[in-house]
Specification:
Radius of gyration: 21 Å
Structural class: mainly alpha
Number of domains: 2
Helix content: 40-55%
Oligomer: single chain
Order of helices and strands: HHHHHHEEEHEEHHHH
CATH class of the largest domain: Mainly Alpha
Number of strands: 5
Strand content: 5-15%
CATH architecture of the largest domain: Orthogonal Bundle
Shape: globular
Distance between the termini: 45 Å
Largest sheet: 3 strands, antiparallel
Number of helices: 11
Amino acid sequence: MPSFRSPKAQSVHAVLQKVALGTGRHDHRDDGKIHSVGTARGYENSLKGSAGFMRDNRLGDLRNMSREIAMHYLESRAAIVSQKTLDLDRQALQMHLGIKLDVVKSEKETHLSTRSYTPAQIERIASAQSERNSLATIIAHCGGLRAHELLTIRPVSEQKASTHREWSTERFTGRDGERYTVEGKGGLVREVLLSKDLAARLEATRLVEPRPVVDRGVNYTQHYDIGGGRAWSQSFSAASQRELGFSTGAHGLRHSYAQERMEELQRNGMNYDDAKGTVAQEVGHFASDTTEAYLR
């Protein structure tokens, strides 16, 4: 690595050495590469802080980073950042060094509160948006979608779910509708279920020709004329502020979906752990601790 004058330049260079965009994370999880623009951006920001720590302590630059220095840096961060930030810093350093580092627990107390919206609140927000963004809000709530996933929605006949995962047959238990697929984090394609009425509304916006869309530096091909990505997310937050006087962000719709589905599944006789596992697959991840955060 050449000698850089700024921590940012060092972090950019370090990440560029590990980027392998265009290949799915789930099919190449052990290759030590970065397969997501979002992950690359997060690692770059984390390594910028690591490089600044090296400079401020006269330890050289990122070329001089070692396991011992990395652990010292993480331990120094534990008192001032959340566990989520600390874990991201650790993962970025692991990528840079090519070794596994011990998990360091954050000492900073994180006050957690629900990010979910009630159905009535969601209805008010949607009514305060443009037609395109309003429909996207209703779809995101009905299917538990992320902002960028709205840009990728396709019928299951046109885009199949990823085959490297074992999908539970309990998904969507108690609900009826039309199945679509979306592409989520790491290239994972999953099925989502929309009510028949909502699917009909979506199909009415079908584009004659798919169009390219760039959102947060990522290229997508959109097949429906609905909102999505950052522009929709900003619209949602603005409408929430106008209507409710607060906003927990568009991601709060996924929290709403997860909590509503947990209640439905348990009401239909499914035990808590099985319901949580089913909901995890429906929202596009398989980590129980992440699902737990959605249920607060």
